[in-house]
Write a structure and sequence with these properties.
By secondary structure, the chain is of the alpha/beta class. The chain has helices at 4-8, 22-53, 134-143, 153-157, 190-195, 212-226, 237-240, 283-295, 315-327, 403-416, and strands at residues 70-71, 74-75, 121-130, 161-166, 200-202, 229-231, 233-234, 244-248, 251-259, 275-276, 298-304, 331-335, 340-346, 349-355, 357-359, 370-379, 384-394, 397-400, 420-422, 428-430. The protein is globular and about 50 Å long.
Length: 431
C-alpha cells in the first residue's frame, strides 16, 4: 500500500530530445552568412577609404601668383611662381632658359622653403666684387663679354633675385682719380651682365667714382638703360640712400648699400651732390634701414667695409652690422677685403662679412682666389637660411670648386666664423 506522500507525488515527465527543425536551421544559417558578408564588406570599405585619404609623399599644390612691383623708373622683373611640392624648388627667372639643377656630385643649392619658416619663401643669391675693367675687360674682348659668367650663370639665373657688388664705373668719359687703382669699363659689357642673371648691383664702394662725377653719372644712366637695378650711389644723398624695393613670391624685399671705404670726402653723396652712400657716421644708414623696414617685409644691407686681405672682420664691421640689425636689417652681406670672411648670427639674423672677389683681376695671393655664391632662402617671418656654393675665382672666370676644394673652403670658413660653422654640404649653421 502506497504512503500518503507517494500518493500525492506528481509523476515525473520524460523529456523529449530537442530536435532542430529544418526551418529554424535555415534561418540560423542565413543569418550567419549575412553577418559574414557584412563583415567582409565593412573591411573592404574601410580599406578603400584609408587608401583614398592617404597623403602621398609628394603632393602638387596650386602655384601662388606673385606680381612684381614697380619702383620709380625701375620695374622689378616678374618671376614664375613655383608649383610647390614637399620640397619646394626656387622659381626660374624669365631670362633664363631651362636651368639644369645641380648634379649629385656638385654642391647642393638651398631649396626655397627649406626650413626658413612657414609661408612663402624667396631665394636670393649674392656674389662678391665684380670688376669689368682692366685685365678682365681684356679677357672679355678676347673670349666674349659673356666669358666671366659662362661657368656660373646657372646659379645666378635660378634665384628669384641676384645681387652683386659692381666695382667698376661704366663710362668712357671723365678723368682718372689720383689713386693706386682706377678702373672703368665700356657700356658694351652691360648687356651680358644683365643676361647673366644679375638683377641688382651695389655701387657703394671705393671704385664707382674712379673717373669722377661724370663717370658716376654715366654709370647710373647705363645701368638704368640696361635694366639693372642699383643701390648705394646717386645724383644726391636722397637717391644714394634710397632703397630698391621689389616683390618676389609675395614678399617685399628692400635693398640698401653703404660703404665704409671712401677714398675721399668728395665722394660722399650730399644735398644736390652726386656720390656714394657712406657709413662712417652710422646714423643716416640706420635711419634709412628703419624707414625701409616700414615698407618691406625683409631688409637686406650690402656693406662695403673691412681691411683688404684680412680674414677677420674689423671691430667697426661688427659694430655697424649689429646696429643695422637693431634698426631692422634681416640680412647683411659684405665685401671689399678681396678675401672671404666668416659668418655671424646676431639676434637671429645672419651676417656674411665678406664674399671675396667674384670677377676680378688675378692676384698672386691664393686666398684671393677663394670665393662663393651665397644663396639665402628667406621667409616673411624675417628668417633666412644660408647655403654656400664654393667658387674658385681666377682669370676673370669664376668656377664652382671641386668637392675637395670646397671642403677645404668650408673648413676655413668655419675656423674664421663667430659662433657659426659651414657643414660639409655648405649649409651655414650655428655651432
Amino acid at each position: 500500500m502506497k504512503s500518503r506522500a507517494e500518493r500525492h507525488r506528481r509523476p515525473e515527465k520524460k523529456r523529449k530530445p530537442y530536435v532542430i527543425s529544418m526551418k529554424k536551421l535555415a534561418i540560423f544559417s542565413g543569418a550567419a552568412v549575412a553577418c559574414f558578408v557584412v563583415g567582409i564588406g565593412i573591411s573592404y570599405i574601410s580599406t578603400q577609404f584609408n587608401q583614398t585619404d592617404a597623403i602621398p609623399d609628394q603632393v602638387e599644390a596650386p602655384a601662388a601668383v606673385s606680381k612684381p612691383t614697380e619702383q620709380g623708373n625701375v620695374t622689378a622683373k616678374p618671376t614664375t611662381a613655383p608649383a610647390p611640392t614637399t620640397s619646394i624648388q626656387p622659381s626660374a627667372k624669365p631670362s633664363a632658359s631651362t636651368v639644369p639643377s645641380a648634379k649629385p656630385s656638385e654642391f647642393p643649392s638651398v631649396s626655397a622653403g627649406s626650413g626658413a619658416g612657414s609661408g612663402p619663401t624667396v631665394k636670393l643669391t649674392f656674389v662678391g666684387d665684380v670688376l669689368l675693367g682692366s685685365k678682365v675687360e681684356d679677357q672679355m674682348k678676347q673670349f666674349g663679354y659673356d666669358y666671366p659668367y659662362s661657368a656660373v650663370k646657372d646659379y645666378l639665373q635660378k634665384a628669384d633675385y641676384t645681387i652683386a657688388n659692381l666695382e667698376t664705373p661704366i663710362t668712357m668719359r671723365g678723368e682718372a682719380e689720383q689713386k693706386e687703382y682706377a678702373y672703368r669699363s665700356s657700356p658694351l659689357a652691360l648687356p651680358e651682365l644683365a643676361k647673366s642673371g644679375i638683377d641688382l648691383v651695389n655701387l657703394a664702394n671705393n671704385h664707382v667714382m674712379d673717373y669722377g662725377k661724370d663717370g658716376l653719372l654715366d654709370t647710373l644712366e647705363a645701368l638704368d638703360k640696361a635694366g639693372i637695378n642699383r643701390i648705394g650711389a646717386g645724383k644726391d644723398a636722397n637717391e644714394a640712400y634710397q632703397p630698391v624695393i621689389v616683390e618676389k613670391q609675395g614678399i617685399r624685399i628692400a635693398f640698401l648699400g653703404f660703404s665704409r671705404v671712401v677714398p675721399d670726402s668728395s665722394w660722399k653723396a650730399g644735398k644736390n651732390k652726386a656720390g656714394v652712400a657712406e657709413t662712417y657716421d652710422y646714423r643716416v644708414p640706420v635711419e634709412a634701414i628703419t624707414k625701409a623696414k616700414e615698407k618691406a617685409d625683409l631688409v637686406v644691407v650690402i656693406a662695403h667695409w673691412g681691411v683688404e686681405r684680412q680674414d677677420d672682420p674689423d671691430k667697426y664691421q661688427k659694430e655697424l652690422a649689429h646696429r643695422y640689425i637693431d634698426a631692422g636689417a634681416d640680412l647683411i652681406v659684405g665685401g671689399h677685403p678681396h678675401v672671404v670672411q666668416g659668418f655671424e648670427q646676431y639676434k637671429g639674423k645672419w651676417i656674411a662679412y665678406s664674399l671675396g672677389n667674384f670677377i676680378f683681376t688675378m692676384n698672386p695671393n691664393p686666398k684671393t682666389w677663394d670665393s662663393m655664391i651665397l644663396e639665402a632662402t628667406c621667409s616673411k617671418v624675417n628668417r633666412c637660411d644660408l647655403q654656400v656654393v664654393p667658387v674658385l675665382a681666377k682669370l676673370a672666370k669664376p668656377e664652382v670648386m671641386t668637392a675637395e676644394q670646397g671642403t677645404k673652403l668650408f673648413e676655413r670658413l668655419t675656423q674664421i666664423s663667430m659662433g657659426a660653422k659651414v657643414d660639409h654640404n655648405g649649409k651655414v649653421q650655428l655651432k
